[in-house]
Amino acid sequence: MAKIIGEALPNIPWEEKPAGCKDVMWRYSANPIIRRDEQKNSNSIFNSAAVPFGDGYAGVFRCDDRARRMNLFAGFSKDGIHWEIEDEPLVFEGDGIPDEILKVQYRYDARVLKFDDRYFICWCNGYHGPTIGLGYTYDFKKFYQLENAFLPYNRNGVLFPRKINGKYVMLSRPSDTGHTAFGDIYLSESPDLVYWGRHRYVMGTSPFEESAWQCTKIGPGPAPIETDEGWLLFYHGVLTSCNGYVYSFGAALLDLDDPTKVLYRSRPYLISPQMDYECVGDVPNVTFPCAALTDAATGRIAIYYGCADTVTGLAFTKVDEVLDWLKKNSL
């Protein structure tokens, strides 16, 4: 049986698979766990990230306000399901960077992960177009911003939770300034979290006739999960339908020592927009994963995902089940 390499999380949010469910991943029965108006001025709360913190959880949340400005907010929870999100956005202090980089144009779609003694945050940062913002915190009270990782245009920056071959490693999806009609996943390395290079292709879209849900563009989701068989990556894929874009998500397994090598990649999706809260909202037909909690003791995985660019949902799986499914259903 496959095992997660990491720490035990006995209080991981969890709900057993419903009786008769044949899917390898299942939704929380009380979804959405975060509704659009659970903050003082929010129009929508979605595409957000959570990590274990203290005796509960902390997170960085995308909250679009009623002027439709996109920004990031800290939030806290005892159980990972019921959240209190702050009403004022994050304020970053510059870690050796000029005020020009600190200036807020927009911030959205954060990923958060524990790395050694701090929590790193990656997000889509407005700097003459979308690029990858990078910062960190020790306590979710004071936040520090580093240099942007890349030039515009780029989205979906996702750090690995440890160095690989002595380097920091990040996945991203180069894009353009609009609602990008293309997108593949690339890997980049850095010795110091400032200078990024050795950019390498990881995987791209699939032919429509082989796996249509991921034929327009793809992008990385939560931080990769280390297992004894490889890095488990949940990623989103997009189909261009007669009703516009449809965002679903699936999984891939990357080599532990060289994550540009894709060992398996799902042909079917794990989750696609099917529930009302996934199909109806500011942007219909979107399921977009941004965070994954794991319990190494039981193999449980809980995934937070944005629904219709409006609310936040939660889904569950187990590492041995999802890897077995992945191997049997690989492109």
Automatic annotation (TrEMBL):
Lineage: Bacteria, Bacillati, Bacillota, Clostridia, Eubacteriales
Signal peptide: none
Keyword entries, A-Z: Glycosyltransferase, Hydrolase, Transferase
Superkingdom, taxonomy of origin: Bacteria
Protein family membership: Belongs to the glycosyl hydrolase 130 family.
SUPFAM superfamilies: Arabinanase/levansucrase/invertase
Pfam families: Glyco_hydro_130
A single MF term (Gene Ontology): glycosyltransferase activity
Protein name per its UniProtKB record: Glycoside hydrolase family 130 protein
Gene3D superfamilies from the UniProt entry: Glycosyl hydrolase domain, family 43
